[in-house]
Write a structure and sequence with these properties.
The structure holds 2 protein chains of 2 kinds. Chain A is globular, with a radius of gyration of 14 Å. In chain A, 18% of the residues lie in helices and 36% in strands. Chain A has a 4-stranded antiparallel beta sheet. A two-stranded antiparallel ribbon of chain A has the order 1-2. By secondary structure, chain A is α+β, with helices and mostly antiparallel strands. Chain B is an alpha+beta fold. In chain B, the strands form 13 sheets. In chain B, strands 9, 10, 11, 12, 13, 14 and 28 form a 7-stranded mixed beta sheet that branches. In chain B, helix 4 packs parallel to helix 10, helix 7 (329-339) runs parallel beside helix 8 (355-364) and helix 19 packs across helix 20 (810-823). Classes of the chains: A alpha+beta, B alpha+beta. Chain A binds chain B through residues 1-3, 13, 18, 20, 23, 27, 29-34, 36-38, 40-41, 54, 56, 58, 62-64, 73-76, 82-85, and chain B through 250-254, 273, 275, 438-439, 667, 689-690, 721, 724-725, 728-730, 732, 869-871, 873-875, 877-878.
Chain lengths: 91, 981
């Protein structure tokens, strides 16, 4: 079980969170061409080591977080709000 | 002669006798006994039959290393198979039974398998029943018979009547194992002020000290132990759990523990999830058997087990004991047995030993023979041992009635291995030692390869101090002692001169010959060998066999042992009952039950409720003895002819508020919502990023900056999370907030030609005339002073409204609606009628929104806006999703009126029923309006290719074949006259 340190609620079991995919993906504009959307929806790198991923604290504050997790050791090195505004706010 | 109780000594309470039964025979033991010690003391040598050959087996260990003495405890629904006799605390009235034998333990017909042992050698099943040259059906034929003979123990088929609990816990330091290392680690960490959790598998604390006859740190071992136990138990910051096994270590310091509770406690077992900042593994080491002929016979035990039974339980396994060793550790066992008056012979594979060992043995009265190894035991229960030199020469037979063996020690690496840490082979100690880990986990004591008790205690103190310092506390300096502690080096792996069956894995009946044969056939990597021979599988997961097996492979491949590799241990370290893992989360407690605000009123009215997801929803409202079919057809008629009311409170409801609310809806729905005027509602469909339909529903424009979105019941949570994700991760600039208000509103659908009449009588401040309140209009009003929201929308195709009130007024609303409906010749309708009404109208529902269908597949392509992009608008245009021959929605009707068909049927061209067919049937109902059965389904090419043609709805599972005609999926009032009337 992972323990994720939610910046708003504190350290909690990962069972309180929902995984939301690769945070390094930037989704294109809605009117972007099919190829750009294909890239964003289907093409993923599979890095060994640190990786940024999205998690929602679905059974807590419901905010979306960006979690930096090592895919080999599962060590979590950084957790921050997905919204930049909120990152500024809690500093 | 067999085992007996010594006259004095032991940590048992002779004043508190207990009675128990084994295979129906009444026996006696004492408080403090395990089932194994009491069986041994009662002279019971034969305890079990082995798994494959049904060979007689006895007790071989004194703890979790036991590989033979698996018994079934309890009977009926309380049956627990595969219980280790050596770890089962004896309680009064315990019922234990032997396993794997029929008709009895003494005379077991399955033992005939021994005669066919050649057949059962490595890879027997694969070679005989599978692979090239075998008819593919042969395994299918034999499997049934093989499965019946296989398996470890038999579980009860009755529901488990016991209670189980689960607990969550946090601590600074979790110490696993309460031997000298664990106790000292806990003490030092506690004295530094840390919150300590100490878990011990045994029902007593002390580990190896419980059978230690020698002093530790100049103190009698028991005094040393009891002083520390007292202070640990008195410390407020130490939690001690006995009878508790740590079976798994997981990420970020999370450990899984299972606690066995005493009979009469609140539960049988308690599952702990402990989150620790640091973990000290002080789980000790396990002694390895020696590999020699008939080393599995009852009476052959580990040397440390012989010692433990004698010292802790005052039980001698025999009167004449032969102990065979290749290392120093068995000397203590031999000395203690000899001092207890048992004639003891010790044979050692080594030649040159330090004088101190020789002297102590002589002093204790042990007959010592050097450069000797056991070749085989003689007798069904060992009564003699043939010994010889390492190369099989100088054979001599020694009479005895119990045999001890020590093949060296394996530090308990399982928990660390679960964390993915590879152990490091130490050639000098012939043992795997803990590898490096970046996690805050430390092995201490024998688990780190430290053999002497005093060094273990030191190692524990060092681990406790390390934990304290890492967590910012002061702690005394203590260095970790190095591994080892023997006076003379071990001489492992003597496999020469062995006669007969020599077992490497006792629990799975894998012999030396099996392992060698597997290596010869090329299965010479540990992971391959495990699968080919089953070595290291079953409940003990190779606890005593793994290292010996690696040594045999190393010998066969003529390579050093550490070049062979290891297998990875996976959780759980010991079997954990499903009951313990489930805890209280069973039956109705597995998931929460959601009830609509109308629930009590519906039930009072006689509704039959149906579980849909977490919700309980009204299925149908039987009158008298009505069946579901009779009931829903009557309910449909009420709606079509008068007025029906239906609880729709379970629909997902989301308040979308803010200046950009319309922009958000424009982006997530395929159709336009920004342009919707205030006071209007619109049906919308959402796609996923990949262009597949996610959900549908109506959204109502309540104000300039506010929409009231409804979703399907099933997708309410998903849509809410989706909107949150989009707003937070993709469009943080949108000024809009979404709030789930599903539980804040109770809602009812009011449908039928008299719906307007009913509502107008109720809600007087809203004008319901067609001119004032047209189809898809939204109004706010009140009834009896209660605020309500009404939209004129229809799922059934009738003149219909949805009316919502604050949840607390749900039952009040229901009561007045029910009165109003009844007085107009109408009534209530449930889910079954709701589903049937929408099929008549050709509306899509859950069975059609199956996560595979596109807008066009559902016949909704014309909804998609061409003026704005939306989620999924790019990828839905991919060529494969635009193919004309995709399965698309159609209406279906039996060719012969009166015939029926079912959802789930495969649609095929009549006469061609091969392959996967051309489509499938999703929803079917009887239609009172049309006087026959109708359905929706998907067929390749859709209406364009199939309208008016005939297909076969084939239902091979339920054995029904119906010819159906393909029609447009709007069976009733396709022009919408009723809707707009």
């Amino acid at each position: 079980m992972l323990r994720i340190n939610c910046p708003f609620c504190g350290e909690r079991d990962h069972s309180e969170f929902t995984y939301g995919g690769d945070a390094t993906v930037t989704y294109p504009a809605l009117d972007a061409p099919t190829e750009a959307w294909f890239e964003a929806v289907y093409v993923r790198s599979n890095p060994k080591g640190p990786h940024r991923e999205r998690w929602q604290h679905s059974d807590g504050c419901r905010l979306w977080l960006i979690v930096e997790r090592d895919t080999v050791t599962h060590a979590i090195t950084r957790v921050e709000p997905s919204r930049a505004v909120l990152s500024e706010l809690i500093k | 002669m067999t085992g007996f109780r010594l006259k004095s000594g032991g940590a048992i309470d002779r004043g508190k006798p207990l009675s128990f039964s084994f295979d129906g025979r009444m026996l006696r033991g004492f408080t403090g006994d395990t089932l194994a010690s009491a069986l041994l003391a009662s002279g019971q040598r034969l305890v079990a039959r082995s798994f494959k050959y049904h060979r007689p087996r006895g007790i071989m260990g004194a703890g979790v290393e036991e590989a033979s003495a698996l018994v079934t405890v309890g009977k009926g629904a309380h049956t627990t198979p595969n219980t280790l006799a050596s770890t089962e605390e004896l309680v009064d009235g315990l019922d234990a039974y032997s396993q794997h034998c029929w008709p009895s333990l003494r005379f077991d017909l399955g033992a005939i398998n021994q005669l066919f042992a050649r057949l059962f050698s490595a890879g027997f099943y694969y070679k005989t029943f599978m692979g090239p040259g075998k008819r593919p059906k042969s395994w299918l034929f034999y499997e049934h018979f093989i499965r019946r003979a296989a398996g470890l123990g038999v579980a009860s088929r009755e529901p488990d009547p016991d209670h189980y609990e689960s607990r969550e816990a946090f601590c600074d330091v979790l110490v696993i194992g309460a031997g000298p290392a664990g106790i000292e680690a806990a003490r030092v960490a506690a004295e530094a002020g840390l919150d300590v959790f100490l878990a011990e598998r045994d029902f007593l604390l002390g580990g190896a000290l419980l059978h230690e006859s020698q002093p530790i740190e100049d103190t009698d071992a028991r005094d040393w132990l009891s002083a520390r136990e007292r202070s640990l138990r008195a410390a407020p910051n130490v939690r001690i759990l006995g009878h508790t096994t740590a079976f798994g270590l997981y990420d970020n310091g999370v450990a899984g523990l299972v606690e066995r509770l005493q009979p009469g406690a609140s539960a049988r077992e308690r599952f702990w999830v402990v989150r620790a900042k640091r973990i000290v593994i002080a789980a000790g080491a396990l002694e390895r058997p020696l590999v020699f002929g008939n080393n599995d016979r009852p009476g052959v035990m580990l040397a440390s087990a012989l010692r433990a039974y004698a010292n802790r339980w005052a039980v001698a396994a025999g009167r004449r004991v032969l102990i065979a060793t290749n290392n120093d550790s068995a000397y203590a066992a031999a000395h203690d047995l000899a001092r207890a008056g048992i004639a003891t012979t010790l044979i050692d594979a080594r030649e040159n030993l330090p004088a101190s060992l020789l002297h102590k043995s002589k002093e204790a009265g042990v007959e010592l023979r050097l450069a000797c190894v056991p070749l085989r035991t003689i007798g069904r229960c060992a009564r003699a041992v043939e010994i010889g030199t390492a190369d099989g020469g100088g054979v001599e037979t020694i009479q005895c009635d119990a045999v001890g063996m020590s093949g060296g020690w394996s530090p308990t690496q399982h928990l660390l291995s679960q964390r993915g840490v590879k152990p490091i082979w130490n050639e000098t100690l012939a043992a795997f030692l803990p590898g490096a880990t970046g996690e805050p986990i430390r092995c201490a004591g024998a688990a780190a390869g430290t053999w002497r008790s005093e060094d273990c205690a030191r190692s524990g103190r060092a681990a406790g101090a390390e934990a304290a310092r890492a967590l910012g506390r002061r702690a005394p300096d203590e260095e970790f002692p190095g591994p080892g502690g023997w006076e003379a080096p071990i001489r492992p792996w003597v496999f020469g001169g062995i006669k007969g069956k020599a077992f490497v894995d006792l629990q799975n009946d894998v012999t030396l010959d099996d392992v060698r044969q597997a290596c010869a056939e090329g299965y010479d990597a540990p992971e391959l060998l495990k699968r080919y021979t089953t070595l290291g599988m079953a409940t003990d997961q190779g606890r005593t066999s793994a290292v010996n097996a690696l040594a045999v492979i190393a010998e066969a491949r003529a390579k050093p042992l550490d070049a062979i590799g290891t297998t990875t241990f996976r959780p759980p370290f010991v079997p954990v009952s499903i009951g313990a893992l489930a805890g209280a989360e069973r039956d109705q407690h597995l998931l929460p039950t959601r009830r609509s605000p109308m629930h009590d009123a519906l039930v009072a009215q006689g509704a039959r409720m149906l579980e849909t997801g977490l919700w309980l929803r009204p299925w149908f409202y039987p009158q008298g003895e009505e069946t579901v079919d009779e009931s829903y057809l009557r309910e449909m008629r009420l709606v079509r002819e008068a007025v029906g009311i239906c609880d729709v409170s379970t629909l997902g409801k989301i308040a979308v508020q803010g200046p950009d609310a319309g922009e958000l809806l424009d982006r997530v729905y395929v159709n336009a919502f920004k342009s919707l005027t205030v006071g209007r509602a619109r049906y919308g469909v959402m796609l996923r990023d990949d262009g597949i339909v996610m959900d549908d529903g109506t959204s109502w424009r309540i104000g300039e900056h506010e929409y009231f979105m409804t979703t399907t019941t099933a997708n309410a949570g998903k849509v809410m999370a989706w909107l949150e994700e989009l707003l937070e991760t993709r469009w943080p600039d949108l000024r809009v907030a979404v709030t789930s208000v599903t539980d804040q509103w109770a809602g009812a659908s009011v449908a039928g030609p008299l719906a307007r009449d009913l509502l107008q009588a109720l809600v007087k401040d809203v004008d319901f005339t067609n001119e004032a309140f047209s189809f898809m209009g939204v109004r706010e009003g009140s009834f009896d002073g209660v605020h309500c929201r009404i939209a004129r929308i229809s799922f059934s195709g009738e003149l219909a409204y949805e009316i919502y009130v604050p949840a607390d007024y749900g039952q009040a609303l229901w009561r007045v609606l029910l009165e109003g409906a009844k007085s107009r010749g109408g009534g209530t309708y449930g889910l079954e009628a709701l589903g049937a009404l929408r099929v008549e109208k050709g509306h899509v529902g859950g069975p059609e929104l199956d996560g595979r269908a596109t807008l066009d597949d559902l016949g909704l392509g014309r909804l998609a806006s061409t003026k704005k992009p939306f989620i999924g608008s790019a990828l839905r245009m991919r060529p494969d999703l635009q193919r004309k021959d995709r399965a698309q929605i159609v209406g279906l009707m039996p060719v012969t009126t009166g015939e029926t068909f079912k959802g789930g049927s495969i649609l095929c061209a009549a006469g061609d029923e091969s392959g996967h067919g051309l489509g499938w049937v999703t929803s079917v109902t009887e239609s009172p309006s049309l006087g026959q059965w109708i359905g929706l389904g998907f067929v390749k090419g859709g209406l364009a290719d199939w309208e008016g043609r005939t297909l076969l709805a084939d239902d091979p599972i339920r054995g029904r074949r119906t010819l159906v005609k393909v029609v447009a999926p709007h069976f009733l009032d396709p022009e919408g006259k009723r809707l707009h009337g």
